[in-house]
Amino acid sequence: MTMKGLVLSGGAGTRLRPLTHTQAKQLIPVANKPVLFYGLEQLANAGIRDVGIVVGDTALEIEAAVGDGSRWGMRATYIPQEAPLGLAHAVKIARDFVGDDPFVVYLGDNILRDGVREVAEGFAENDARAQILLARVPHPERFGVAELDPNEPDRIVRLVEKPSEPRSDLALVGVYLFDRSIFEAIETIRPSGRGELEITDAIQALIDRGDRVDSRLVRGWWKDTGKPEDLLEANRVVLDGFERRIDGSIDHDSSVEGVVVLESGASIESCVVRGPVVIGAGARLSHARVGPYASIAADVVVENAHIEHSILLRGAQVRGLQGRVVDSLIGRHTRVSGNRDQAGAHRHGAQVASDGESVRAQPRHHLVVGDSCTIGIGE
User: Fold this and answer.
1) How far apart are CA 171 and CA 235, in angstroms?
2) What is the pLDDT of residue 19?
3) Which end of the chain is less crowded, N or C, counting CB atoms within 10 A of the terminal residue's CB?
4) H-only helix segments in the chain
5) Are the C-beta atoms of residues 146 and 138 closer than 8 Å to each other?
6) What is the C-alpha separation between 45 and 326, in angstroms, rounded?
7) What angle, 0 to 180 degrees and rounded to 10, lies between the N-to-C axes of helices 35-45 and 59-66?
């Protein structure tokens, strides 16, 4: 039987402001690739060829980025959601797209290391009406939480959305598999206290009427990229899976160590770069120290600055900063500058490259800056 995919990309991303004032949260890059693209790749790897994408206010931007889905060997259908009325509402409005086929629901701001292929194949072979991916988390009260049947440990007996006193540490990770029974269940629920149709309530309705709802514990890592610290952590774990590739240019005065991806047209001059790092096409780094865990997008300029554990989006410029830019997100075409002169920066950079105490002694800049801003940082 054909399985379809349903990707939910209608959220406003309020926790990622100011970046999401001017772009869809699902298109913010992790390791220089939009978050949404990871999910589409994983659905394609599971053999899914029809994907519905639920979109909201950022519909035009999502459609421009994804197109018809052909780059992943899929056909994309866009499903507008008039307001963020809950995950179950997003599933409900996809009824015509889904038809009678089983389908995978994938939140567009999630990344799973091992994808959904194995769980999708397993769902097609069992008699469950739904299957939910779970992960053990340290703070389950922030998530929907599942309680399992002690006699059948894969079977879910109860779901609670963000409980104040969680009875397990098993969180819903944002990937669900359903057959058409879920649409009947959604019709029986009412909006929650926050005015949304909760997918946990719909799944609980299936359980309460005696339908089987199974679980699968996520193997490897799973990342929800809803907050700046989540994006940075996702960037770290994705970069850890890279392999070294140098297609751009590196001068003789630079040191490039570890796993570094340097795209064609990018250049490194008089720098220390320590992987894992990815540097996009057309980026220019000079008299700088970059990495580890930095993603530098296409056409970024870094001069006389120290960048680590950060994401710089397309066209950003960071120049002349004393100290380190750490744990930062800098938006598209944003300029961040200090008043550090080039010669002094070069000498200081050489010292930092060899002296760990000097690195720790530097001031640290933690920035979350939206698109097209200009910021000056004084000495």
Assistant:
1) 21
2) 66
3) N
4) 35-45, 59-66, 87-92, 95-98, 117-125, 181-186, 199-208, 228-239, 342-354, 356-361
5) no
6) 34
7) 50
What the block records as the tokens of 239 is 């970069």
Q: Closest Cα to residue 323, out of 359, 284, 368, 269?
A: 359
Name the strand (E) or helix (H) holding 131: strand 130-136
- Can you tell me the distance from the alpha carbon of 196 to that of 174, in angstroms, rounded to the nearest whole number? 16
More confident residue, 257 or 135: 257
Identity of the amino acid at 68: D
The winner for highest mean pLDDT among 21-25, 321-325, 339-343 is 321-325
> Residue 265 pLDDT > 60, yes or no?
yes
Longest dimension (CA), the chain: 73
Which residue is it, tokens 């200081």? 348
Q: Does residue 284 surpass a pLDDT of 90?
A: yes
CA quadruple 333, 247, 345, 275: dihedral sign = positive
Question: Exposed, middle or buried, 187 (CB in 10 Å: 0-12/13-18/19+)?
Answer: exposed
Instruction: Look at the block and give the residue holding tokens 């779970």.
Output: 134
Cβ atoms of 216 and 154 within 8 Å: the answer is yes
Q: What's the pTM value of the predicted model, to 2 decimals?
A: 0.86
State the amino acid at position 233 in one-letter form: E
User: 28: which 2 tokens?
Assistant: 């913010």
267 touches 284 (CB < 8 A): yes
Q: Which tokens go with 217?
A: 């514990």
Judged on CB neighbours under 10 Å (0-12, 13-18, 19+), 376 is exposed
Which two three-digit tokens encode residue 33? 């690739």
